[in-house]
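Question: I have long wanted to understand how a fold can be written as tokens. Here is the record:
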Amino acid sequence: MIPIRLQDDAWREVEEGTEALVERWLVGEGEAVDSGQPVADVVLAKTDFELLAPAAGRIEKILIHEEETFARGVDLALLNEEVQGGASPTNNSTASVEADDAVPVSSPQSAHKQSCTSLFVPFAGIRGAVARNMTSSWQTAPQVTLMAEADVSLCEDRRKDLKNAAGAGVTLSITHFILRAVALTLKDHPRLNARVTSSGVEVASDIHLGLAVNVEEGLLVPVIRYADRKPTLELAIEAKALAEAARAKRLGPSDFQGATFTISTLGTTRVEWFTPIINIPQVAILGVGMVQRRPVIRGNDIVAAPTLKLSLVFDHRAVDGYPAGLFLTALCERLESAEDL
């Protein structure tokens, strides 16, 4: 018997303890397969992989079934080399009778249901991974949201200056200033830069920011590592490169792992504020809404200024409201002063 395992390359640089999921078996027990034939679809850290048959033979036994998870080095199935490739022999007449017997009789209710369904999106691939992660987060972490509004006038001025200095071809948005501000603020408020484990809270020594990227199949969160060591312009270039690579499916599992804090923005929409779901085991996530011009009091004057609302969602097991509020306050103050941005 030959064990069928997920290829070693898929696990390269993946965090210890990470598990993959068997999403779908493409063959069943007793079916003949050729060497290199895809036999299952597997998801590892929001990355899709095809499980390949290591040799020609017959699937003797499936050990890890659909929707079950497995760790590195685990046998997913056993392959018997005694049968060499090709399709499984079948009795055509028997198959024809069974197929005829299996044809469902359409009822008025089923016909109505089919006519009312214009699109069906299965919980598979990235969409399935997002669904599982969000469900797990919602069921596991007691999540609390704090919201504050920041005047980003000085950030806008700074953005124009950096843009002019960088020249054509460089895209700068308020998101890149938020990345920089969050990274610097986390240095002063490390309890938000942490992960929850079964025994407690692990405060991270380095700051790795996850930036949510919308792709056609769902939501991906590639990681910008050591974000506090990078100036705003470098963060902008790296964020753009990661987003493009994510949409082109050029990133591997390790590119989505290791974040210590996540930022999710809907700034390109008309959403003013929202409450994103924590990317567990992280302690917190920041939701960023659209920039709007609002009346702001400056001294004795009322002026129109660009502002945005920030929603900090945190795991109440790991941090309380007051220190979370201090972090959000410090973040707003940093954005309003544009200090070190």
